[in-house]
Amino acid sequence: MTREEVFEFLNSRNYDVRISGNARWIDQKCTADVILIIADCILQHTGYNTETEFTVSDIWQDQYTKDNVEAIFLKPNLDSNMANNEYNKYFSQPINLLEYSGALLDIGTNSRHNYKINNLELLEFIALRETNSLFFLTNYIRKVLQDSGIYDSFQNFLDNQTHNDFIQLKQTFIDFTITHTRINKWLECRRIFTKILNPLAFSLQKLGTRRGFPSSTPITLDELRYNRINWRDELSGKSKNITRQEYNEQQQQVDATSRYNVERAKRIVRRFNAQYHNSVSEVLQDTELVNATQIHHIFPESEFPSISDYIENLIALTPNQHISMAHPNNQTRYIDRDFQYICLLAKTKTIMNDLLGESRTETYNFDSYKTVLNTGLGTDDFDAIEYLNFASLLEKIDLFYSDFNTDSYGYLLERNRPLL
């Protein structure tokens, strides 16, 4: 699903809260990073099957969820006595949002909620990367506010940014919510208000709200995340001088998040390759007739951790290509530079076809690919390349691999170089 298609989907629906009376169209746990992982957990639990029914508890108890959520968000054990109240909100609130948006369908009766995937492409879009999830969330919020006749109040503050406009906006939202939904406590309204205003403010690089007051500086991306690295200290009021135990916990959290993001990125590349490349290797080679079961980091994960979870840095290869060509003699810490060049040519072709071809999905991101190339090649030369200018991109790649030895993998050049 492209961003234009996300717009089309949102614009095709009426989210007027005055009609639905649904107070749970958004809630405190509904941040982009949480919505992403819940969408991913749903996809893994259902196996991408739109006919599979599930409950909040099914997602909560799924082994994939247990393996990831507990470690990433430092939550109590999913099976512990402490978990019930903590996880009820953590899972139910984003699922309520996804249902109200139309990504999910509630087919339950009375008080029992059973869900099915209503729009698989939208759910995959959300689970692809955090920027996608934030894009969906921000535009979903804007559309709900517009349909509900309250967006002008938010726009007024975002335009003028005064203290009085902020106070007026907050009171308008509280009055609206208490009037049209079952929420009747102003404190709960204020907590939800932050989750609505700040994504809008971030998208426009504007002031938002911090601790119930207007922010003195524009809202940052980190402030929108539920899983902020320093969230434990902030919630407890502790200083930055954390204990060794707390430091170790945070490091475990960072490691768990990194592992999760890398594995999720590999699954995305593998699924994309199966759907649009018939599971064959992205590096076309006449003698390789088996499926591409290996997902390879073009620039090694150990050397370039900052781009280790970029799908633009991952390529689907056959086992032989992976252990004999990318990593000669299966030396995983060694990358054959000549074959790396071939991988970059092939990956450029994949990305170009995805962004410019007939079956355009925008799974890949041109700017993210430039980040991968800049980082992996230790340069900033790719910053100057205009959006979707693949000819200039290839010229720049060629310059960095001008020492390519045609005696090694020269026979792979013609089939893997993109046709411009």
TrEMBL record:
This protein's source sits in the domain of life called Bacteria
Which Gene Ontology terms cover its molecular function?
endonuclease activity
Sorted alphabetically, which keywords does the UniProt record give? Answer: Endonuclease, Hydrolase, Nuclease
Q: Could you identify this protein by its name?
A: Type II restriction endonuclease
Lineage runs:
Bacteria, Pseudomonadati, Campylobacterota, Epsilonproteobacteria, Campylobacterales
